[in-house]
Specification:
Elements lengths: L2 H14 L2 H8 L3 H15 L4 E3 L4 E3 L1 H27 L5 E7 L1 H8 L3 H7 L3 E7 L13 E5 L2 E16 L2 E2 L1 H7 L12 E5 L9 E6 L2 E6 L1 E6 L2 H9 L13 H6 L3 E2 L6 E10 L7 H16 L29 E6 L2
Helix pairs in contact: 1-2, 1-3, 1-4, 2-3
Length: 333
Amino acid sequence: MNKLHAMQIFARVVDVNSFTKAADTLQVARSVVTRAVQELEEHVGVRLINRTTRKLHLTEEGCQYYESVIRILKAVEESESLHKAGVANPKGTLRIDVQTSIAKCVIVPHLHEFRDLYPGIDLIVGTGDRIVDLIEEGVDCAIRVGTLGDSGMIGKQIGVFQRITVASPAYLERQGIPLSIDDLVNHRVVHYTAGKSPRPPMFDFLTDAGPESVRMMSSIQVNDSDTYVALAKAGFGMIQPARFSVANELRAGNLIEILPQNPVPQKPVSLVYPHREKLAPKLRAFLSWSTALFERSPLVSHSNRVTASWKAGVRPATLLSDVSDERELMVTA
């Protein structure tokens, strides 16, 4: 059974209140119409239409099913119109917001590829670690790092990145090198905050017993990832940044990894946008391109082992044709 075709036939039968008229307007045999409705009823497991010699009457379940069918057929029609209208050549201005280190290390080095693929799209790229309100600030899409909470935004995880605990040689010479988590009691950190409700300075680790969060001491707080790294290099304390964001500093010896036996939990990287329905071709193009970019990026992992990322109980959303693994979310980190 072609379910979509059967739904179209069922809707036409209801609209004209006749199997015969539906067959005439669809230019098919009456037996085709009858069989399609019967197969639908068998599929859903309930009678949709009560038939008499003179009239047709929708059952209560039939009324509910008809309303669902109309929404589905309308969505299919809109999707086809959207693609015909310009998916192959999207145009317009697209506003995106990207966390600083992701923009600098992953997006910007490849942004020329997007421009070459979609010359009709003008980009406005906002960078920073502040959590912007997509609706109030007119942002089409954001790339966010960290756990996403439950709300009306649409979120799609596109990768995870490895984090690392590091400090400068000067800091370690002054404070000593911690050899275990217990040694952190006398150490300080640079406190990084980006959300509206920042938590106290905490360091996160994976241990044999499971994830462990350690309350740390800090005398300085920042909300920008570049400043976060710069202060660590200057000896203000330890930090737990993305490994890719300090790769050059590690190679140069400006920062040194500590407690490698206790890795830091990974953080998810997600695309976030306001709506699932009627996506503009320009937004759909960026979602597809950025998803593919993260899939091939050596800086981002795609391991399923993500600690403290997607919260249990977040409702999965309906999949889009080329934007999978969506969830209804609110950015909280």
